[in-house]
Amino acid sequence: MTREEYLKQRNELMNAIDVLIGCGQIDEANAKMAEVEVLDGQYEAERTARANAEALRQTGCVAPEPVRNILDIAGEQAVSDNGAAVEPENAIYERAFYNYMTGRSLTVDEQNVFDRINEPLRNSTQTVEDHQILVPESTVQTIWMEMERLHPIIADVGMTHVPGDIKIIKDDDSAGTDAEWITETDTPSDEAINTSVVELNGHELVKSITISWKLKKMSMADFLNYIAKKIARKMGNALAAGFVVGKGTPGESDSHKAQPLGIVTALEKEVSTPQVVTYSTSDALTFKKVTEAFAKIKSGYISGAAIYSNNKTIWETLANMMDGNDRPYFVPDPTSGGVGRMFGLVVKEESAMPDGAALIGCPAEGYTANVNENITMYTEDHVKARTTDYMGYAIIDGTVLDTKAFALVKKS
Q1: Which of 11, 30, 55 is the C-terminal boundary of a domain?
Q2: Is the whole-model pTM more than 0.90?
Q3: Residue 18 belongs to domain spanning
């Protein structure tokens, strides 16, 4: 099973356990806990098997895939005519990338691999293509993993990696009729299926960091890790903000830059804001208001949903909601995939959320994003200041597929 399937099944089981415990059905809850342990073991066994299979694949002779990424091809283990192993090109490229980024000289092999892998970028139409460098796959993975660690909304969004603009057909029949039971002489009724097209275009996301020449003396592993985490933090902040409060593609009268359409933005732009529940200083956030928000989410989405709020809102507002016996609804639980649980859902700290707001929903189903061009890097030296600028660059877009997959609770 995939990681997403595993997490979905596990969350459903944990939600069921919370309900059973709340109803006093302890034996049934214990049985569900045993199912969770079995599921965990199954997923871990599958993951171990995949890792072992990959290890065997690296040592064996495997027919090439018909379509492969250039860095995947570079990572293949080559063998010389005399049978001796040759260093994989991805390892050569990683070293060449490090040497180039730190101003060191490249060997002939490194320069050849560096030029060949970056040749597609040299033929692109970017304005500064001569300085655009493909980031090694291991470093790209580190950047994305760090962005997902810092921003759960990035990890939870259904994201594709398709070059160029894409169109997604979505079903708009939220209130269509279901199938019907008929006899042999009956004629089934016809119903048109209403669909619309969502377009994801290329919006440029950039972030530059500046480091001193002294830091460029770090070892290759330390330098690549340092750059990856710096770029991930800055780009991750902007990308998460785009997914949450992004303003979308500007119209003729708008002055903002093109960016993804955020979930909160889409909910607040709807006529009469049907998916928004408000509270205020004089009208406090209550159990009834939260359940009102839950009721706004269409059936089928709640099983994969979570609650997203920033740190201040979680600990000043959500954690202080009490029932009639002064018991908090919020239960701290860092092992759940967030910082706690509330009303059966995981509460996740998302710094991109506005103060006083909580987003309830399922980004994996209700939101879509596409990475038009994965993260590349630009570099520029400043001799007088003895510093170097490193700029991460990517082309990404995102938009809401179904506002009924979300509900927003906010302070008015």
Answers
A1: 55
A2: no
A3: 3-55
